[in-house]
């Protein structure tokens, strides 16, 4: 799950952030039990995921990870992209990723009663270990990949996929550089069509 991308693409709108960050824990019609703005965040999350899955650059990028993780390649690509986003100085200039991360944690903590139970279970670990900021380091990405392996069926060892991440680092970064500006444009247009105008900056 690319938490950092979904957090950033919520454009600092708290209810949108809640829905966008927790959508993977909300199944089917249960989304209608949440407040309207959170439902909009859930819908945004799913639109982002669909755009990401359909993008031709990502179809090629996934082939890098497939030898190690098969059908889970998309999930590991999400983690890799959060690393490149965390280090993107056009997005997080002047080393403001830590401040943005703390804003996200504080916003979510103030609205935990609106979050699904499974997300509430993991949130203390997200905050304590500062997942969002730690995506910026390769050590943090290795830990994220290890966590994915622990939660995935049929995967035993994160070593091979992390080795591929390091070996193909420049290729993956180039894929991110081609993809993310198009994703950002897509989300800006989505906001104009479906939501309130996005707030400038982060």
TrEMBL record:
<protein>
    <submittedName>
        <fullName>Putative acyl carrier protein phosphodiesterase</fullName>
    </submittedName>
</protein>
<dbReference type="Pfam" id="PF04336">
    <property type="entry name" value="ACP_PD"/>
</dbReference>
<dbReference type="InterPro" id="IPR007431">
    <property type="entry name" value="ACP_PD"/>
</dbReference>
<dbReference type="GO" id="GO:0008770">
    <property type="term" value="F:[acyl-carrier-protein] phosphodiesterase activity"/>
</dbReference>
<dbReference type="GO" id="GO:0006633">
    <property type="term" value="P:fatty acid biosynthetic process"/>
</dbReference>
<keyword id="KW-0444">Lipid biosynthesis</keyword>
<keyword id="KW-0378">Hydrolase</keyword>
<keyword id="KW-0443">Lipid metabolism</keyword>
């Amino acid at each position: 799950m690319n938490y950092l991308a979904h957090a950033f693409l919520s454009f600092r709108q708290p209810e949108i952030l809640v829905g966008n960050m927790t959508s993977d824990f909300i199944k089917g019609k249960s989304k209608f039990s949440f407040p309207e703005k959170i439902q909009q965040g859930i819908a945004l999350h799913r639109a982002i995921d669909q755009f990401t899955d359909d993008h031709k650059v990502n179809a090629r990028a996934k082939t890098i990870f497939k030898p190690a993780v098969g059908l889970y390649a998309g999930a590991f690509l999400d983690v890799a992209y959060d690393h490149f986003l965390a280090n993107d100085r056009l997005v997080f200039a002047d080393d403001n990723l830590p401040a943005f991360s703390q804003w996200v944690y504080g916003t979510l903590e103030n609205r935990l009663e609106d979050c699904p139970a499974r997300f509430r279970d993991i949130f203390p670990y997200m905050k304590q270990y500062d997942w969002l900021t730690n995506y910026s380091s390769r050590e943090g990405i290795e830990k994220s990949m290890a966590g994915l392996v622990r939660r995935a069926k049929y995967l035993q060892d994160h070593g091979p996929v992390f080795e591929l991440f390091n070996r193909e680092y420049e290729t993956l970064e180039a894929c991110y550089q081609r993809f993310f500006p198009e994703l950002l444009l897509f989300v800006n247009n989505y906001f104009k069509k479906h939501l309130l105008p996005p707030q400038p900056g982060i």
